[in-house]
Amino acid sequence: MQSPGSCVHSARGPVDSSDSLLFVRRKCNNAKMVSVTLSPDENTLRQIHRIQALTIVWMSVEAVVSLVAAWIAHSPALVAFGGDSAVELLSAAVILWAFTHRVEVHRKETRATRIAGILLFVLAAYVTVVSAMALLGYSEPEPSYPGIAILIAAVVIMPWLAKQKRKLSATTGSAALRADAAQSGLCAYLSAIALGGLAVNARWHVSWADPVAALAITPLILWEGKEALRGKSCNCC
Asked: How much is the pTM?
């Protein structure tokens, strides 16, 4: 029997213990919540494997191209975007591994997200310092057309990946996939902001637009890091 303050989240309606892979108890708005991750069927598993594999491939390309372009052009905005992409790559790899080996996703994800949260705070601090140095004239960001190209691609691809992960999260009730979908959606916003800074610099040679875009990205990176350290993965928490 459920207590009045508890709720069960499931994409298939009422389930019994034999149909569930994982129960996670949390405090949510002063009420106890039980999050249920259902055992996905083979077709759903294949879709999860495919979308996470695509994410890993794309995030690898995104991170490498962005960081190399950042190093060549001395671009704080590309450092911020590429660093965030590298951290998101870690999250995608953990989820793919968990679903491939049929392990408890939440336990593995919790450890990985805490590591990711620490890395995101370090990234935010580094981006702030690099941006401040650029604004003070210690370095001058140059236009980066490879950087602009990868950011345009990210603006298109990341919302699609986020949409696919949200669908799979609704099917499986997976908090891990739901959190990963949120990360992909946030990456789309980061890419749009960075693209604005790089485009202004490329078009009008306004070098300060790049570090300003990086500083605009930093609060989103800090928010993402805070959520990762708190382990939030349910929409109502």
From this structure: 0.80
Are residue 54 and residue 34 in the same domain, yes or no? no
Write the pLDDT tens digit of every residue in 144-203. Answer: 999 999 999 999 999 999 999 999 999 988 877 888 898 899 999 999 999 999 999 999
Q: Which domain holds residue 152?
A: 42-230
Q: Encode 84-94: b = buried (16+ Cβ within 10 Å), e = exposed.
A: bbbbbbbbbbb
Return d(Cα 143, Cα 123) in angstroms, integer.
22
Q: Is the same domain home to 159 and 124?
A: yes
Single-letter residue type at 106: H
Residue 69 and residue 16 share a domain = no
Count of beta carbons in the 10 Å neighbourhood of residue 199: 16
SS3 (DSSP) at 27: strand
How far is CA 179 from its chain centroid? 8
**Would you state the structure tokens that stand for residue 199, as one six-digit string?**
């485009």
As a whole number of angstroms, the distance between CA 201 and CA 212 comes to 11
Q: What is the CATH number of the domain that holds 163?
A: 1.20.1510
**Residue 1 belongs to some domain of the structure:** no
Q: Which helix (H) or strand (E) holds 25?
A: strand 20-28
**Domain assignment of residue 236, yes or no:** no
